[in-house]
Amino acid sequence: MADTRRRSEAAGLKVSGLALGSETYAVDQPGVAARALDLAESLGAEQLRLVGGATGLGKPYHAAYEATVRLCDAYVKAARGRSVKVVLHQHNGTAVPSASLLHRVLSQFDPAQIGCIYDPAT
User: CB neighbours of 64 closer than 8 A, spacing ≥ 6?
Assistant: First the structure.
């Protein structure tokens, strides 16, 4: 990753944030959040984007909501003392498709430790 960062900076580009696919979060596996944050730091990213639990056919909202809170909690804890801020991406098809549901999740955390990407559907 140091080479990627060096090449980006040589081209005058800065990695402002890192987004991982939702399948890589695996908060039930120890160390996943720390490794993701290590990667973000190695690239010089200021943010690490999280995607909330998926909703959809046959998936109850409550399960997606609980998964999102657990995800945020794991990443907020792993991000303490680091230079990377965790942000939750508000998006359709997740537990946080609206500003009010995004607030429902994020209000449980210190805003200095977690933020959001507001992405309303049009």
Answer: 52, 53, 54, 55, 94, 95
**Residue 104: domain span:** 16-117
Nearest-angstrom CA–CA distance, 8 and 120 = 30
CATH number at residue 31: 3.20.20.150
25-67 pLDDT, tens digit each: 666 677 889 999 999 999 999 999 999 888 888 889 999 999 9
Report the C-alpha gap between 51 and 45 in whole angstroms: 17
pTM above 0.90, yes or no: no
How many domains does one find in the chain? 1
The pair phi, psi for residue 92, each rounded to 5°, is -60, 150
Q: Is residue 8 assigned to a domain?
A: no
